[in-house]
Specification:
The complex is a heterodimer of chains A (297) and B (55). With 297 residues, chain A is mainly beta. Chain A contains five helices and 19 strands. In chain A, a hairpin with a 4-residue loop joins strand 13 and strand 14. Chain A is elongated and about 80 Å long. Classes of the chains: A mainly beta (297), B mainly alpha (55).
Chain lengths: 297, 55
């Protein structure tokens, strides 16, 4: 409870509804916007699909259904029957997102990470929170978790659940509503088409070569025409900088990758790398894969 | 980034950061079946081959 003097502050002439949440955008923890960039379509296009990995800090998810799982506030009743609210509850929600099984599988790596979450409603509202600097806006800090198990037998819309546990009630006190000129589906259109990548022949130290298969998500159609620079090593415990030095296109989405550890050496046994494949139009990624990890035997 | 579909092999332009001598050795060991010579491949990815000194 704020022990401050309260003042009346008028009422709006226009009564508009917030609507229901029909999507959310996960942004990297610490991502902030100005009031202008918060509703600038190109800002979110770069955040979602920039061809430069370091500039990609956002991802949007359409929502099919959701439950508000926020606990009820605790009301204490004294022995004189006087009531007071005890503490403040932190919001939480269970979202059912509109994705495929393969998409959902790729989300596991996001579990436990803290994000700043921007919410969207079917009344065209974009909701964030104003930071203490007042000139910047951000999403609500939250941690996400997923459900693993058999598909539900009754309602197919409830297959892909995302728990969202917000971390700060105060952010909801400083909520800010924006009315962008774009719709949430415009942002969804910026999301690169999903690719799947997996190893089909394990890394051979002598030739420095792994063979991978790159297919379009869900259909399994081979994705052809990739260049060596489209195969990006995101992480590795290699002793030097690990790069995909060259590729040979075997057709039907199969590529032989020459992976160097340093300028020309091979990866050693026990060393691993994480690889992501993307296809871009120079500015934006148009295709983007899951992250694949291979440890050299 | 789309590569020329006729070209089966594509080398990461980052390899042009190697000296041509090192690239040539890597090319010989790693891409023995490349249709392009080490010199042509190096130039294709943006590498510059040092001119020989004239006597």
């Amino acid at each position: 409870m704020d022990c401050q003097t309260g003042y009346f502050s008028g009422l709006s002439d226009v009564i508009c509804k917030l609507g229901k949440i029909n999507g959310f955008m996960l942004t990297d923890k610490g991502t902030t916007f100005t009031d202008a960039t918060f509703i600038t379509e190109s800002t979110h296009h770069l955040g979602i699909a920039s061809a430069t990995t370091a500039n990609r800090d956002s991802m949007v998810f359409p929502v099919l259904n959701y439950e508000n799982t926020t606990d009820d506030v605790t009301i204490q009743t004294s022995n004189l029957n006087l009531k007071d609210v005890d503490g403040k509850v932190v919001p939480s929600a269970l979202f059912y997102i509109d994705v495929s099984a393969c998409d959902y599988q790729t989300l596991k790596g996001l579990e436990g990470r803290l994000f700043d979450v921007v919410l969207f409603t079917d009344e065209g509202k974009q909701i964030g929170t104003r930071t203490s600097t007042l000139s910047t806006v951000k999403g609500f800090r939250a941690k996400i978790a997923f459900k693993y198990g058999l598909p539900p037998s009754d309602n197919g819309q409830l297959q892909y659940a995302v728990h969202m546990f917000f971390r700060a009630q105060s952010e909801f006190e400083n909520v800010t509503y924006a009315s962008p000129s774009y719709s949430f589906t415009d942002l969804v259109d910026f999301v690169p088409v999903g690719l799947d990548v997996r190893v089909t022949t394990a890394y051979v130290t002598g030739t420095k070569t792994s063979v991978v298969l790159v297919t379009k998500r869900s259909t399994g159609l081979g994705h052809i025409g990739l260049a060596a620079a489209d195969f990006e090593i995101l992480e590795s415990n290699g002793s030097a900088t690990v790069v995909v030095a060259s590729i040979t296109d075997n057709g039907l989405g199969s590529y032989s990758l020459v992976i160097n550890n340093g300028s020309a050496s091979a990866l050693a046994s026990g060393e691993w790398y994480k690889l992501q494949v993307s296809d871009d139009d120079s500015t934006y990624n148009t295709y983007q894969s899951n992250v694949m990890k291979e440890t050299v035997a | 980034m789309r590569k020329d579909l006729k070209d089966k092999i594509d080398v990461n332009p980052i390899m042009a950061e190697l000296s041509f001598a090192k690239f040539e050795k890597w090319h010989k060991n790693t891409l023995p079946n490349d249709e392009l010579s080490a010199k042509d491949r190096y130039v294709k990815i943006g590498g510059k081959i040092p001119k020989k000194k004239e006597d």
